[in-house]
Amino acid sequence: MSRFQFRPATFKMVFFMYLLGTVIFAILYLLPVSHKQPLLPVDAFFLSASAISATGLSTVTVAQELTTAGKIILLIQMEIGGIGVMALVGALLIALRTNAPVPSQTLMIFDQNQNSSRSISKLMAFIVKYTLIVETAGFLLILPSALQHGSHAFAAFFLSVSTFTNAGFEISGNGLDNFKGEPFVLAVLSCMIILGVLGFAVVMEFLQSRRKKKSLYFKVNVLMHGILLLAGFLFFFFVDFIHMPGLSFTEKIIQSLFFSAAPRSGGLASLDLHVFSFPSLLFMIMLMFIGGSPSSCAGGIRTTTFAVILAKLWSVIRGSNETHMFRKTLFAEDVNKAFLVFFAFLFLFFFSFFVLSFTEKAAPFPLAFEIMSALSTCGFSLGITAGLTVFGKIWLAFLMLIGRLGVIILIYTFMNQKKSTIKYAKESILIG
User: Fold this and answer.
1) Torsion sign (Cα): 237, 303, 200, 379
2) Most buried of the four, 179, 204, 309, 398, by CB within 10 Å?
3) Strand partners, 324
């Protein structure tokens, strides 16, 4: 894959496009037609940031406080956030049979975490088609059960969109309580979450290049997703569900599968998170931290970042100066970028935890859980969202936007890269 260099203006443009979209939709939520009860501007901004970042955290009860018009606006914003602003722009240009100018192509490439200008138009078109197909299929599969429980078709479609885009919102008012005892529906929702975090480029390569040799990007993502799903399933089943009363064996299997997928960025929970043990909640934080694939609906540091860091650590242990994966040598700049994302994410998490510990009254662990959920765009909460201060709401809103775009945009938006020509003498230092 050809290397692609981004100018600082590219990062700034994408960041401010998402920020502008957040403000515009926040204004729409403040319109009388959108809400049943008065909505504070900070709550509208928080809801808008959560929707466009496909997170799912909310300081208001969406089912009760938004009108039908407000829920439709939320549905549209979830779709925009899940697919990506520039992906929609690219798909529109393709539909109009208009070639995207070079600056627009650059924004599309960055918005989808790609590093090549090759086949970007095909990817944009595929994203929209793939999204519509999966969401429609999910809607049709869960509709009979939703109607049986007294829900309506719009709520079922809303849930389908929310699940695939990993937005984590629902408008029934009781979460997924209606589907606790329905393994089929939970299995469908689990598959939709997985399809949302797997990555558009991965799915496109699988469907359109079955006979061709798979790329390193494809192999790494499929392997990491397989490992994380299996690890999550085994952990939740043997730590919590195997001892949990009131569930059949089949329900325990499905719930374990669901929660192995949902913390990666899904946001929807089929059970109250307070029923989980402390080790399971810690494991959820780890899954939120890793997240899903680049060019997907998920957040986190991304699977490729985590895989590259593991590969580099293994190469250091073996005494190798180069990093290898699937008999390929990685570019040093990609390895450096992976470590930059990893430590920038951790720094932002701990710094936010430090700052908000002064302003928020929540207990330390629920606060840390909330911060990781916002930064990784997961949407899980231990119930402290509504009690956040105005400062806390604004802080988490920006964390969600950063999490949607990737923490590296925060660095490159406000810092200019300068290559140093100065070389210094080398000297060894004691380590460990």
Assistant:
1) positive
2) 179
3) 329
